[in-house]
Design a protein that fits this description.
Strand content: 5-15%
Order of helices and strands: EEEHHEEEEEEHEEHHHEEHHHHHHHHHH
Bound molecules: adenosine monophosphate, magnesium ion
Helix content: 40-55%
Distance between the termini: 29 Å
Structural class: alpha+beta
Strand order of the largest sheet: 3-10-11-9-8
């Protein structure tokens, strides 16, 4: 049923110009008893939407897909992807895009429901989603946004009033995800697999128009596109490393052309620093462990470059060489940016030869002493904020002396302080806090969720009465586990 556009969506569905073979018209399922769990009014304001004046019944009906707004064209997208290294044909199995909303300053955002029923691409899945995981995506994606990390965002979570069956019976829910686009490396792999160069070119032009307009009319367009995506992905991964974020399922279908973090399934933030941290229940070999994220990003980019080989040069050997040389730039580009990011976290101005050793020594100390990643940098940024006894240990104080000497080179206390405060959050969505909030949210009580969201909306600011959110939990005997497809 179409309804009045009270929300004031301004749909211009450019994705409809994409090759028809990658889209499937798909209507969301009607759900039994839609109820608002949470609406993101801050985001709706940024999008220029009018949600504040609308009653919950209307919002529940619209964000469950029971009523579709005028101008909505509901589709799911085909894509392929390497899942844990294995190539598969996938597609939006439980996601339906309802429209592309264009803001007053002409930015386009795809509005997508996650969990609104089976699609042509559902394979064995039920197309549905459960309340806990959707609210978890809402909390973590919003936290990422306020940590200044590119990400898809979350506009609403609606309970469907239906059950979904996983290991147990769970409450059904639908998340409204907002992304500049849902194009992924896997979208390109889909056409490369089909050896469909003509549609691949159409997809590339669409991508360039949307995400990289500065490349238009450039020579070596395809090589430049690989270069741009590499730059965006390096920036993204460096940001993840900065805050101790582990995506958990960096399959090529979860790497967005926009450079936004996408797909909050088994992701988690690290408490105690351990480069081998893995939380995903199915990542048995640590493919997507914290320290391995740059290696995997490079691997994914190589898969992207492979798709473009037929277009890079008519001579296949030459095309392969062009792509390989480009991808091989990853390591030094990443190293440089990672080092810059770490220097910023430590307020070190300029480049000194000994910086890398100093940084690695700190990380090693953190690892050996099971120090909390976020809190160690907080301790260095704000002398008295985190006063754990671990930070009084001799070896840490000795390291600090070396660091202070380094800071005296190119000394500028104000700049150092400012850079550190911008780089080191005082609060992150710690796993135990998110789990606790979700547990109470299951009972209909959103107090903890709302408090967490409020605090996480200013993660670089000193806030009063948040000590309980900053405590690093003691390592548990039962390791924290996260799950895909929940
Ligand atoms: P993800 O791990 O979220 O990237 O999902 C991998 C693939 O599984 C994608 O094609 C999803 O659309 C699909 N998928 C995940 N959960 C479900 C579900 N409950 N029903 C249908 N498809 C699903
Ligand atoms: Mg995915």
């Amino acid at each position: 049923m179409a309804v009045d556009n009270k929300i004031e969506w301004n749909f211009n569905n450019t994705y409809l110009s994409l090759p028809k073979i990658m889209l499937s018209e798909q209507k969301p399922d009607i759900v039994e008893k839609p109820e608002v769990v949470i609406i993101n009014h801050a985001l709706s304001k940024e999008l220029g939407l009018n949600l504040l004046d609308l009653d919950d019944k209307y919002l529940a009906s619209v964000f469950s897909g029971n009523s579709l707004p005028d101008g909505s064209k509901t589709i799911s997208m085909a894509y392929a992807g390497h899942q844990f290294g294995h190539f598969t044909i996938l597609g939006d199995g439980r996601a339906i895009t309802i429209g592309e909303h264009v803001t007053q300053n002409n930015q386009g955002f795809e509005i997508q429901f996650k969990g609104s029923g089976k699609t042509k691409f559902s394979r064995d899945g039920d197309g549905k989603a459960a309340l806990g995981p959707m609210l978890r995506e809402y909390i973590i994606s919003e936290a990422m946004h306020y940590l200044n990390i590119p990400t898809t965002r979350s506009l609403a979570v609606i309970k469907t009033g239906e059950k979904v069956i996983r290991e147990t019976e769970l409450k059904g829910a639908i998340l409204t995800r907002v992304a500049t686009s849902h194009l992924r490396v896997g979208t390109f792999q889909y056409f490369a697999y089909k050896k469909d160069d003509s549609n691949l070119k159409t997809l590339i032009n669409f991508t360039i128009n949307k995400h990289y307009p500065s490349l238009k009319n450039k020579e070596n367009l395809y090589l430049n596109l690989i270069d741009k995506l590499m730059e965006k992905q390096i920036d993204l991964i460096v940001n993840w490393m900065r805050v101790g974020f582990i995506h958990g399922v960096m399959n090529t279908d979860n790497m967005a052309l926009s450079g936004e973090t996408i797909d909050y399934g088994p992701c988690a933030f690290m408490d105690q620093y351990d480069p081998k941290s893995v939380f995903s229940s199915i990542d048995h070999f640590g493919r997507y462990a914290y320290y391995n994220q740059p290696t995997i990003a490079k691997w994914n980019l190589a898969r992207f470059a492979e798709c473009l080989i037929p277009l890079l040069d008519s001579n296949k050997d030459k095309a392969i060489k062009l792509a390989t040389d480009k991808i091989n730039e990853f390591d030094s580009n990443y190293e440089k940016k990672w080092l810059g990011m770490m220097r910023d976290k430590l307020g070190m101005i300029g480049n000194q030869k000994e910086d890398e050793v100093l940084i690695l020594d700190l990380l090693q100390w953190m690892h050996i002493n099971k120090a909390d990643y976020t809190n160690t940098f907080c301790n260095l940024t704000y002398e008295n904020m985190i006063n754990d006894k671990i930070f009084h240990k001799d070896d840490f104080l000795k390291w600090k002396e070396r660091w202070k000497i380094r800071l005296s080179v190119n000394n500028n206390d104000k700049t150092s302080e400012k850079t550190m405060k911008k780089s080191n959050p005082v609060v992150i969505p710690r796993n135990h806090l998110v789990e606790d909030a979700l547990k109470t949210a299951e009972t209909g009580d959103l107090e903890k969720t709302n408090r967490l969201l409020k605090v996480l909306s200013e993660p670089y600011k000193i806030q009063s009465s948040i000590q309980d959110l900053q405590i690093s939990p003691k390592p548990s005997k039962i390791p924290y586990k996260t799950f895909c497809g929940t």
